[in-house]
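Why TrmB family transcriptional regulator? Reviewers of the renewal asked for a concrete example.
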Amino acid sequence: MEQLLLHLRNLGFTEMESKIMVELATKGQASGYEVAKQLGVSRSNVYAALQRLTQQGYVRCGEGEPARYSVLNPEELSTMISGRIQTSLAYMENEMPRGGPVTPSFYNVEGDRNVLGALIHQLNLAEQEIVVDVWREEATLLRSELEQAELRGVRLLWAFDGDNAVAAPPAWTPLGGKPPRSDGRKFSFVIDRSWCMLGMRYSDGTAQAVVTEHPVMVELLLNHFTQEMVLFELEQDMGAELEQRYGDRYSSIYSKYVMHSEDGQE
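Here is what the prediction returned.
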């Protein structure tokens, strides 16, 4: 019942209208007094809602005293609502003003479903290029959308973390702050060199991401991807020599720039 009421509200009906329509559908027909008594609400509110629903054509008012109301059957309701929504959507698309350029901004997306939903939507809009820097777990979740993009002729550029990953620098420890969560996997996507998402998925199923079309962030992520790929190729060609000279994973180089706090102190 609650799910039905929720979807009716999503279609534009008020909570009162939704409850009245479900009640009428359950009873077949009823007077305004009977509906108000069943719902435990004031008759004036019920009659006002019934008048709106009748004027809109969703509810029929029968002859007699007292008047008895009935709601359209589900198929009729669906056809009527769908037609009106499609008409409004078409009008909005044609008539909505198209203003000047909007300054690129950043916005946050939280929750695994919301993050993946926003990403999948954008992947389906990709026209030329997708730059992907992910762990294999996230790549698996998006396999279908990435394959469809390739079939459309979109170029995919990959950098995988996980097995055979590119050597990554150590994490920067917060200065005097609480250490970051260690169970997360970073990911980034740059689509058509104009839209990007940078985020983290955690082992408990939560996720957070930043989305932007700001050219500076797009360029930073593309440069980071390029550097990873260059480092990967260098490792393939000169891995043993690099490790002999600079140490495993080049820690002697990284240590000059990344300072680790001990008990919150530098």
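Residues 2-94 form a domain with the Arc Repressor Mutant, subunit A fold (CATH 1.10.10.10). This is the kind of structural detail the renewal will allow us to pursue systematically.
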